[in-house]
Design the sequence.
C-alpha cells in the first residue's frame, strides 16, 4: 500500500488536526482520513476566544476552520465527542471512548495542550475557570458585562487579552501576578511596563508579586480570590490563565519519547515511523536556534500540519521559517517573530509613547527575535532577517528614519 492510500487517523480535532485533514486532501491523499475530537464541534480557531469573539465582534461560525459540510464532502470521517484513550503500536490500533477500536496505517497525535488548573481551595466554585475551549469562552462571555468584576490570575497574553475584552464589555478587571511584573516569562521588562501602563490607562488594575492561595465563595459561586497576605480580591468571575501543558499522555503511555511534549523531527515524525505528532503537543526542532523547544501557536500548528502532510503524501518538506505569534489588546497589535534564545542585548526602534515600536533581541548583530507593537514592517522584515541569519547594522536598525527594507538590504 502506498502512503497515499494509507488510512490516516488524526487524534485531536483542533487547529493542527483540522488543518492536516484538509491539507492531506489538498495534496492528493486518496486513503481514508478519520478525525477524532473530544470537543462537540468541528475544528476551530482558538485565538479569537480571548479577543474578537469574547467581545462579541465575531460569531461561532467565524471561528470554524472549515464549514461542517467540508468534512463529508472531502471524505473526512470527523467524529466529535470521542476521546482517544490509548494507542497499541504493535497492533496499530487506537481505542476510543465510544468503546470502539480503530485500525490505522498512520496515526497523528494532535491533542494540543490543556490550560493549567490551580489545585487550590475553592477552585471548583462556579465562576472559577480557564480559557481554552469555545465552551470556556462562552461561559466567560456570559459572565462579563457592565458592573461585573473579573479577576485574572496570571498576567500572560491570554489573561491580558481577556482583561481588555472585559473592559470593552463594561466589566472591571484586575490582574493578579505572582512575578514582580506581568509577561515575565515571555517578554522583556520594557514590553511588560508598556502593556501594564496601556491597560491601566483603560481601567485595568494590577497586583504583582502576589500569591493566590485560593478562592472564596457564597452559595457555591466565587466571590473573591484570596492572597497569601490575607487580602481577598472581590470578583464575580476568576479566570485562571497560568499557562498550558501538552496532552501527551497517549504518547507517553505508548512508550514514545517525550520531553515537554512529544519529541518529533522536522517531518513531524515521532520515534515510531507510523506515528506523527503536530501542534501544541510536540517538542520540535527549531533549526534556526540549533535546539528543540515547544511552541504554542497557530504558526506551529500550521507548520507542523504542513510538515506531516508533505511527509505522508511524499512531498518535499516545507522550508524552515522563523516562528511567529501575535496578541491583540485594545487597538494594539503585537506581533512576535522568532524566539529570544541566546540574545545578549535588546534594541528599541520607534516610539514607545506613540505605541508604535519594536523591540529587537540580538545576539551580536544577528536578530533572534522581534516584538513589534503596531509595527508590521519591523515584524515582517525582522522575521525574514531571523530566518536568513543575516547580520544587521545596529545603528541603522535603531534609526526609524531608515526603512526596514534598507536595514535588511
Ligand atoms: C484563548 C486563546 C488565545 C490564543 N491566542 C493565540 C494567538 O493570538 N496567536 C497564536 O498564535 N496562538 C494563540 N493561541 C494558541 C493556539 O490556539 C494554539 O497554539 C493552537 O490551537 C494549537 O493547535 P493544536 O491543534 O495543537 O491544539 P488545539 O487547538 O488545542 O486542539 C487539540 C484538540 O484535541 C482535543 N483532544 C485532546 N486530547 C484528546 C484525545 N485524547 N482524544 C480526542 N481529542 C483530544 C482537544 O480537546 C482539542 O480539541 C491561543 C490559545 C487560546 C486558548
Sequence:
Amino acid at each position: 500500500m502506498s502512503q497515499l492510500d494509507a488510512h490516516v487517523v488524526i487524534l485531536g480535532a483542533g487547529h493542527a488536526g483540522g488543518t492536516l485533514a484538509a491539507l492531506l486532501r489538498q495534496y492528493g491523499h486518496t486513503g481514508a482520513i478519520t478525525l477524532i475530537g473530544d470537543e462537540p464541534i468541528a475544528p476551530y480557531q482558538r485565538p479569537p476566544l480571548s479577543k474578537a469573539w469574547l467581545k462579541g465582534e465575531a460569531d461561532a461560525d467565524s471561528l470554524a476552520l472549515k464549514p461542517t459540510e467540508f468534512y463529508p464532502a472531502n471524505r473526512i470521517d470527523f467524529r466529535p465527542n470521542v476521546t482517544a484513550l490509548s494507542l497499541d503500536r504493535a497492533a496499530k490500533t487506537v481505542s476510543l471512548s465510544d468503546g470502539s477500536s480503530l485500525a490505522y496505517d498512520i496515526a497523528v497525535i494532535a491533542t494540543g495542550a490543556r490550560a493549567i488548573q490551580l489545585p487550590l481551595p475553592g477552585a471548583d466554585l462556579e465562576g472559577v475557570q480557564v480559557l481554552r475551549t469555545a465552551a470556556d469562552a462562552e461561559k466567560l462571555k456570559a459572565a462579563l458585562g457592565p458592573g461585573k468584576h473579573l479577576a485574572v490570575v496570571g498576567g500572560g497574553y491570554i489573561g491580558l487579552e481577556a482583561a481588555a475584552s472585559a473592559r470593552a464589555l463594561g466589566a472591571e478587571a484586575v490582574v493578579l501576578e505572582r512575578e514582580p511584573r506581568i509577561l515575565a516569562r515571555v517578554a522583556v521588562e520594557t514590553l511588560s511596563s508598556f502593556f501594564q501602563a496601556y491597560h491601566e490607562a483603560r481601567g485595568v488594575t494590577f497586583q504583582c508579586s502576589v500569591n493566590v492561595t485560593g478562592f472564596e465563595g457564597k452559595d457555591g459561586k466565587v466571590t473573591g480570590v484570596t492572597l497569601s497576605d490575607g487580602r481577598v480580591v472581590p470578583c464575580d468571575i476568576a479566570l485562571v490563565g497560568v499557562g498550558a501543558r501538552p496532552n501527551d499522555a497517549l504518547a507517553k503511555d505508548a512508550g514514545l519519547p517525550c520531553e515537554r511534549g512529544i519529541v518529533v523531527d522536522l517531518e513531524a515524525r515521532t520515534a515510531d515511523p507510523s506515528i506523527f505528532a503536530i501542534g501544541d503537543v510536540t517538542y520540535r526542532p527549531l533549526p534556526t536556534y540549533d535546539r528543540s523547544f515547544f511552541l504554542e501557536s497557530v504558526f506551529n500548528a500550521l507548520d507542523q500540519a504542513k510538515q506531516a502532510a508533505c511527509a505522508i503524501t511524499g512531498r518535499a518538506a516545507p522550508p524552515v521559517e522563523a516562528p511567529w505569534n501575535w496578541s491583540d489588546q485594545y487597538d494594539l497589535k503585537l506581533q512576535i517573530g522568532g524566539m529570544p534564545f541566546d540574545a545578549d542585548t535588546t534594541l528599541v526602534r520607534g516610539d514607545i509613547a506613540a505605541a508604535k515600536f519594536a523591540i529587537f533581541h540580538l545576539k551580536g548583530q544577528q536578530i533572534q527575535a522581534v516584538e513589534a507593537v503596531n509595527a508590521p514592517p519591523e515584524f515582517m522584515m525582522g522575521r525574514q532577517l531571523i530566518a536568513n541569519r543575516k547580520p544587521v547594522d545596529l545603528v541603522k536598525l535603531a534609526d526609524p528614519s531608515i526603512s526596514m527594507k534598507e536595514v535588511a538590504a
Remarks:
- The two ends are 49 Å apart (CA to CA).
- The mean pLDDT is 96.
